[in-house]
# Entry
Amino acid sequence: MILLALLSLASAAESPHWTVQVEPLTTALGYVHLQVEAAPSDSFSVYVGPHLRLFSAPGTEPEPYVGYGAELGVRYYFQGRAPEGWWVLARGVLADVHATDSDQRAVGGYGSTLGGYTGIVGQTVVLSGGAGVQRIQYGVGDYGVRGWFPALHTAVGVAF
# Structure
């Protein structure tokens, strides 16, 4: 009984190795991401999750297309406390993009490289932010976004 209590306390004191995050900024722009992150080592983490382009960004001309795909990212943590601390990230999205007003389809996506920081408050609440550069090729027909752009990362979530 005492051994179980000590093991329980030891595991509760360990840093989290998993996070589940959403990105409020990209969601506001119409691109919804859910990222499930695992830290298999002290310096690296990998995340994967669904990617959805559901609507045009507020304040822009509506464009009749949607996208469904997946996102994959790899982070290197400089201080060796993954999934918390200063990091660099390489990420990519691959999606099936199709027009909602015709039968046009295309493969879309983007790749980006960013630097940033992830903090975990109380070993549970994840707050993350970063900036970098991205190449986007995402659209169908005359609609969409194509070219080089700044990349921003904002995320909130839970760690366990």
